Automatic annotation (TrEMBL):
This is Corrinoid adenosyltransferase. It catalyses: 2 cob(II)alamin + reduced [electron-transfer flavoprotein] + 2 ATP = 2 adenosylcob(III)alamin + 2 triphosphate + oxidized [electron-transfer flavoprotein] + 3 H(+); 2 cob(II)yrinate a,c diamide + reduced [electron-transfer flavoprotein] + 2 ATP = 2 adenosylcob(III)yrinate a,c-diamide + 2 triphosphate + oxidized [electron-transfer flavoprotein] + 3 H(+). Its main location: cytoplasm. Pathway: Cofactor biosynthesis; adenosylcobalamin biosynthesis; adenosylcobalamin from cob(II)yrinate a,c-diamide: step 2/7. Keywords: ATP-binding, Cobalamin biosynthesis, Cytoplasm, Nucleotide-binding, Transferase. Pfam families: Cob_adeno_trans. It is an enzyme of class 2 (transferase).
Length: 190
């Protein structure tokens, strides 16, 4: 259980922060950049939820919780030491990835195949979901970059990859099942 009774600790004033295993790193480290960007994705999902309702809002709420799981996963290095930890570290798993895939498939059934790239926009919800998509793509790039220098849970990277796809398909669905997508017209303004 988390208890936060004092928000500022002053322990980060010198430019370092604590990871999930207690070690301290620079706030600009690759690991902090990765999980910090996941937190940014979560904030964009919160904005999207202001426009969402019904099943989409329910899915977005579930995704927000998953993103906290993902942040906890990424802030805990040394996966090979998980068995020795005082408590089992929280890790994203393939079940969470499979759920996103299932939801993508279900949403995609009602959409016509794309014959053009689409521009972010259309409805307010679609525009917010496209923002979620681009920020989650950045989080994915940072997690992949981190994985080249430190251990990263492969399911965490897969989750981010599927998540951006989820946001893309949900954005199309929010544009009246794609009929109100804003299509890219190559060279239109030459």
């Amino acid at each position: 259980m988390v208890v936060l009774n004092k928000i500022y600790t002053k322990t980060g004033d010198a430019g370092e922060t604590a990871l999930g295993n207690g070690s301290r790193v620079a706030k600009h480290s690759a690991r902090v950049n990765a999980y910090g960007t996941v937190d940014e994705v979560n904030s964009t999902v919160g904005l999207s939820r202001l426009q969402a309702e019904g099943d989409v809002d329910t899915s977005l709420a579930r995704i927000q919780n998953d993103l906290f799981d993902l942040g906890a996963d990424l802030c805990r290095p040394d996966m090979e030491k998980d068995a020795d930890a005082e408590y089992a570290p929280l890790r994203i798993n393939d079940t969470q990835v499979a759920r996103l895939e299932s939801e993508i498939d279900a949403m995609n059934v009602n959409l016509e195949p794309l014959r053009s790239f689409i521009l972010p926009g259309g409805s307010a919800l679609a525009a917010h979901l496209h923002l979620c998509r681009t920020v989650s793509r950045r989080a994915e790039r940072l997690a992949v970059e981190l994985s080249t220098i430190e251990s990263v849970n492969p399911a965490a990277v897969k989750y981010l990859n599927r998540l951006s796809d989820w946001f893309f398909v949900a954005g199309r669905m929010a544009n009246n099942n794609g009929t109100e997508d804003v299509l890219w017209v190559p060279g239109a303004n030459r």
